[in-house]
Amino acid sequence: MEDPSSEEENPRVLKVLEALKQASHELQTHPTTKADSNSSAMKALLELETESDTILSDDPHLSTLSQYLSELKALVETLQQSRGHSLRNFLTRRVSTHSIARVAGSIEFEIQAWIDRESIEGLRKALKEPYKIDEKLVGLLTQFEERVSKGFNRELQDLVLKSKAFSLLQSVLCDPNCSKRIREHAAFCVAALIQFNKDVFVGQVSMDATIHALLTMGSTHSIKVLCALIRSIKSPFVDEIESNGEIPKINALLESKNLGMRILVLDCILEIGYFGRKEAIEAMLKAGLIKKLVEMQRSELGGDLIDIGRSEEEENGGGVSAGGVEKKKSESGQQRRFLESHPFASCVARFAVQLEVGEGLRQREKRAFKQEILERVREASVSDAEAATIVAEVLWGSSP
Fold first, then answer.
1. If pLDDT is split at 50, 70 and 90, which confidence band does 21 have?
2. pTM of structure
3. Angle between helix 180-196 and helix 220-233 axes, rounded to 10 deg
4. What is the average per-residue pLDDT within 65-84?
5. Residue 318 contacts by C-beta under 8 Å, 6 or more apart in sequence?
6. Contact 107/99 with Cβ under 8 angstroms?
7. Which residue has better confidence, 234 or 74?
8. Of 45, 151, 174, 272, which residue has the fewest beta carbons closer than 10 angstroms?
9. Cβ neighbours of residue 130 under 8 Å, at least 6 residues apart?
10. Which domains does the chain have, with CATH numbers?
11. Given pLDDT bands bounded at 50, 70 and 90, which one contains residue 398?
């Protein structure tokens, strides 16, 4: 049974160590100015060294930190004793300042290691009872995602693997009895870990269960995670989406009443277009994707990016005065601004471009799908003018 007093003590220690980690970082960044014993960073570290017996003695993981603090105190004393202008004192100060920066780095490392151990252990325990501590678990999941998103760290990875946190996160994500909010935060953590080190964590993903859970939730957060996983895992993840028969569900979300959802689903479809193999693209087209995209492009939030280029040419007298490179930059900027207010503009051509430049299809498959897209555009268009505009965009490419 866990000692309740330790749970009360840990937040106090954590608060102290977080402040000291910042002080250590300052000491490394500005060793010459901050190494003075009167600086706030140095005072904080030396005060901890004085109180280390009471604050750090109960945790064996902090014993190395106590040793570094003692070493820091000795280096500061040496630095204070070399105030003269002799060459020897000058060299001593240089060496001491360098050593202080090195020890400060070690102190910061030890503090971060302790924080990581405590946070992952707290998360592991909370994930085993995800129904009881909603708000606390949200905070722990958010903290964990932010930590992992800072980039690869070998020691952090070892802690995650040892704690089996990944499998616990995925279990919560796929558990319909958990609140949607908790499941969404768990999903963000899973995606962050895969981005943290794809080679290690992709092999631990239960792709079919994860895909089903994300689409069953059907929230903007879950679709955002789905997009992130497609970008990270690429074609194998799209293969799993297709083999599980989930493509029609994704297409259907384009009809959501939530504008944010429709924009995210379009992004997801564009990612599938880039990474998807023949079977996935066929499934999207059979599910009526092109008809939906034509309707979206026809809406108030749609439009034609090809008209942006034409208006730019007219303003510049056919493009003579703008210059080749500057003209392209201007067009690209105009297109980006137009897409911000018209997110479904030229969505048919943007999908076709993804297939054309993507890595999921062979060259002959790209040509065949382009022809099929053109045929479906003609079928879905309400006028010859609409069909002609979209066909021209698909043939020539108008996506930025």
1. confident
2. 0.83
3. 20
4. 80
5. none
6. no
7. 234
8. 151
9. 137, 172, 175, 178, 182
10. 1-127 (1.20.120), 298-396 (no CATH)
11. very low
Upper half-sphere CA count for residue 158 (Cβ side, 13 Å): 5
Supply 36's token pair: 């003075």
Residue type, 123: L
Residue type, 380: A
Greatest Cα-to-Cα distance within the chain, rounded to the nearest angstrom: 90
The tokens describing 158, both together, are: 């070892």
Among the ranges given (7-11, 149-153, 261-265, 340-344), the one the predictor scored with the smallest mean pLDDT? 7-11
> Looking at residues 214-224, what average pLDDT do you find?
97
> Which of the residue ranges 14-28, 87-101, 235-249 would you say has the lowest mean pLDDT?
87-101
Nearest 5 degrees, angle CA 184-CA 185-CA 190?
95
